[in-house]
Design goal:
alpha+beta, 4 strands, globular
């Protein structure tokens, strides 16, 4: 869990180029999932990165589209997340978007880099609230 006053792991900056804190950034979506959906695909992607950093499997599974959602999610013990770079965000229409990103991490001393073009879809949930969901991605 990330303290509310700590900088958000996703690295989003405010208008003055200062890091947003957890509560003002991804924490509001992760900690208040039932009533605060991410407003766009980029925010959802950033919050999913932060959920990986904080090992919040329940949020990751809830924001994965049911057509592609795994039954369970495990984390690699010892993963150190190093940063996120959003390279592009394209809203294709009211219900579809793509986000290109690079996430860097280190596992057992070995640096890794995940460069992905992710696909997102916006659908109404069971309570009628429109939500963005991660569908899948293409490694670049």
């Amino acid at each position: 869990m990330t303290p509310a006053a700590a900088a958000c792991p996703c690295g989003r900056l405010d208008a003055r180029r200062r890091p947003l804190d957890w509560a003002a950034c991804c924490g509001r979506y992760i900690d208040h999932f039932s009533d605060t959906p991410a407003p766009d695909a980029e925010s959802l992607m950033r919050s999913r990165y932060s959920a990986f950093v904080c090992e919040r499997a329940e949020y990751l599974l809830a924001t994965w589209h049911p057509s592609k959602r795994p039954a369970t999610l495990d984390f690699d013990t010892g993963t150190q997340w190093l940063g996120l770079e959003v390279r592009a965000h394209r809203r294709l229409d009211d219900a579809h978007a793509e986000v290109e990103f690079v996430a860097r991490s280190r596992l057992h001393g070995r640096a890794t880099r995940l460069h992905e073009q992710s696909c997102f879809v916006r659908e109404n949930g069971a309570n009628g609230v429109a939500r963005w969901f991660y569908v899948d991605g293409t490694l670049l």
